[in-house]
Amino acid sequence: MRYSVLTPVERRRRPRRRRPAALLALAAALGAGAYFGVQHFRAHADQAAAAPKPPSQPRRQRFTARPTRVALLSTPRPPRHGTPDVAARSAILVDASSGAVLWQKRPHRRRPIASTTKIMTAALVLERLRLDQVVTVAPGVPRTPLVREGLRARERVPVWKLLDGLLIFSGNDDALALAVAAAGSRPRFLALMNGKARDLGLRDTHFASVSGVIDENNYSSAWDLAALTRYAARDARFRKIVATRIARVPWPAPTYGKVYVNKNALLGSYRGADGVKTGWTTIAGHCLVASAHRKGVRLIAVLLNSPDPYGDARRLLNFGFALPR
Fold first, then answer.
1. Do residues 89 and 111 make contact, with C-beta atoms less than 8 angstroms apart?
2. SS3 string of the chain?
3. Spatial separation of the C-alpha atoms in residues 83 and 315, rounded to whole Å
4. Is there a domain that residue 287 lies in?
5. Which residue in 118, 161, 196, 277 is the catalytic one?
6. What is the pLDDT of residues 162-218, one digit of tens each?
7. Domain contains 83
8. What is the CATH number of the domain that holds 170?
């Protein structure tokens, strides 16, 4: 008989098979075992949760190593005292190559240092700003007291021109303009200056001024200034600027050009003189960091509060160059 797709077909039912009683008993036993196993696991879990937890091991704290202090000066043998005759209240003579102290007079006495402060200012600026970077002069810079070259508010000046003004002309407005550009504000730059002094191991030094125009709490020692000068002089750009007697700097209209004359009278008058920085305030007196080289020997002399800084420097440098080697 042929079927149409629409013709209902009665489905045949298969006869049910009876499961043996043994299988039913085994399934019941397995179910009971599983039930009691779960209950046992829950009981142990609750007991473990109720028990006090052992104290956790503290996490290891990350240790950030502080920069190793640089040994900028050394005294392998007792430095000479007494001669030559130096009138400065504090003074020191150092071999710039080795850092050996050759002569000293009250080297760790803390004294105001006037514009020799700018050695630290220049060292930090050279580390943080490019020479071709253009600085916008902050509005408060033209109001800087005393010696200033006449920067105008919001004037745009390359860093290299401001460094010439800082180290050759010794402009206090240059110092503030560079400080704000390098750190964002004067207080932040002062924090950088004092942090650098700590890193270099300058224990007699504290800065309260970016230029040295303020004497209060702005001090150092002959020892520290010699060490700082050795550090700053590692930069060839610093050495080149402080050895410059006269710098003629082009400037936009209406200025057109500036001429910076170095106040360091040793340049051009003492054979081999090549730096570094002068300073003076009423309280600090005349301060001078001088450097010179002859026949492969380079010396650094520091005079603080001297009635005759250039005479002292000549006598001290002559003494150093005459020492046997």
1. yes
2. CCCCCCCCCCCCCCCCCCCCHHHHHHHHHHHHHHHHHHHHHHHHHHHHHHCCCCCCCCCCCCCCCCCCCCCCCECCCCCECCCCCCCCCEEEEEECCCCEEEEEECCCCCEECHHHHHHHHHHHHHHHCCCCCEEECCCCHHHCCCCCCCCCCCCEEEHHHHHHHHHHHCCHHHHHHHHHHHHCCHHHHHHHHHHHHHHCCCCCCECCCCCCCCCCCCEECHHHHHHHHHHHCCCHHHHHHHCCCEEEEECCCCCCEEEEECCCCCCCCCCCEEEEEEEEECCCEEEEEEEEEECCEEEEEEEEEECCHHHHHHHHHHHHHHCCC
3. 9
4. yes
5. 118
6. 999 999 999 999 999 999 999 999 999 999 999 999 999 999 999 999 999 999 999
7. no
8. 3.40.710.10
Q: Model's pTM, two decimal places?
A: 0.78
Residue type, 253: A
- Dihedral sign, CA of 306, 310, 312, 313? positive
| Assigned domain for 221 exists | yes
Residue 170 falls in the annotated catalytic set: yes
97 is catalytic: no
- Dihedrals phi, psi of 86, to nearest 5 degrees: -120, 125
Percent of residues, the chain, with pLDDT higher than 90: 72
Q: Is residue 290 part of a domain?
A: yes
Residues spanned by the domain of 96? 90-322
Q: How far apart are the C-alpha atoms of 245 and 81, rounded to whole Å?
A: 32
Q: What is the pLDDT of residues 43-79, one digit of tens each?
A: 444 444 444 444 444 343 333 334 445 568 877 566 6
Q: What number of other Cβ atoms are within 10 A of residue 20's Cβ? A: 9
Domain count, the chain: 1
Is 115 one of the annotated active-site residues of the chain?
A: yes
Q: Of 90, 105, 161, 170, which one is the catalytic site residue?
A: 170
Query: Among residues 90, 115, 209, 221, which one is catalytic?
Result: 115
